[in-house]
Amino acid sequence: MSAFRRFGLAAATAAILVPLTSCDTGEPVQRAAPQPAPPAQTLELTPAAEQKDLPVSAEIGITVANASVRTVAMADAKGRLIPGRLRPGGASWVPDRPLDYKGRYSVTVTATDGRRAITKSTSFSTMAEPQRQVGTGMYLFDDYTYGVAMPVVVEFSEQIPESARAQVESRLFVTTTPAQPGVWHWMSGRQVTYRAPEYWKPGTVLSVRAALKGVPMGGGRFGDDDRKATAKIADEKLELVVKNSNKHIEVFRDGKKVKSMPVSLGKASTPSSSGTMVIMDKQESTIFDTTGEPGDQYRVAIQYAQRLTWGGEFIHSAPWSVGDQGNRNVSHGCLNVSHGNAVWLFQNTHVGDPVTVKGTGVKLEPGNGFTAWDMSWKEFIKGSALPVPEDLREPNKSAVSPSPSPSASASPVAPSPSGTVN
Fold first, then answer.
1. Is residue 273 included in any domain, yes or no?
2. CA 63 centroid distance within chain
3. 346-356, pLDDT tens digit by residue?
4. Is 23 marked active-site?
5. Candidate list 185, 332, 334, 350, residue with the active-site label
6. Which of 185, 316, 332, 350 is catalytic?
7. Does one domain contain both 151 and 246?
8. Is 334 considered catalytic here?
9. Kind plus residue range of the DSSP H or E element containing 343
10. Domain boundary residue among 102, 129, 156?
11. How far is the C-alpha of 318 from the C-alpha of 23, rounded, in Å?
């Protein structure tokens, strides 16, 4: 797509008054010196007129000089207008929804310097629905309230090659109110995660659009759908810190310790992971079933379970290990607490609250859960497929630009309930 350049209109040259002598009277008169012509305006659009078989994720590229874009009007074959908005910086105009397969569209763009206007038009048609589509999912639900460490996680049913990741990432839009900066990080070819340099501010409204329907994803494959969600971050910052040294969980609310409770972590043969995790899912009751898996085989009913990793580490009620809690580690990797403490945690925490485990000697594996916060900001931004703006490389100097991400419903992928116990 074309770069969109805006040039400030040259300042109008002030009239220069030059004294002249009148032929009739000899008295001097004043006349304005000729002013230079205003700079020429240019406006170019892509796709070029009559292009065919474009993806339904097509955007309108705009290159303009000596003017700024005033209006963009896109209409389908029946004359119905398609809403959309300019990208930050104006490199292109993005429709608010994916276009229709085998559709025909016309576009008219007008730019102006405040006195003169220039208009250009183009038209194009889109491709038929592709047979090879990559499934997409987003871990964010409309109207839910999450903890301050909730990342935005988008997953894919197939590997996205490195050559296609920049284009895919460019179609992932996030806005926050109040504005906070953020960057996407590819945890793997099947998962990309978004976070800010610091935890979200309590009360933040988070709006996301994974505008991936029809986006080329390499190997003749295309994204299956657009997914949107608007959610809220909790009004309080709740953090859990688990120390193996004293085998206690400390709970902090807005930086103040409000509770400490004994815990039993993973035994030597099945240690708990050390690192900063995020509560991924909460289930008041569930079944932990490891039959058919390596190691111990069991199927047990569990209450007040909160998932921390895909590998099966949870915080949960474990009345059978109350005598060990605070004294020794006996679990298969989970954080065992008493029934009463499990209920209290379940009632006070959110999906998205951070849980930091210290001192187990086993490092949390990247991607084993929502692990975006288990790395420094400097490390995190290295995982972006797009250039990171200079002001986001230094967290204290960053600012968020608006993006074309209207709020709407989400279609998240739900985590499975399987895990370990005791």
1. yes
2. 27
3. 999 999 999 99
4. no
5. 334
6. 316
7. no
8. yes
9. helix 339-348
10. 129
11. 109
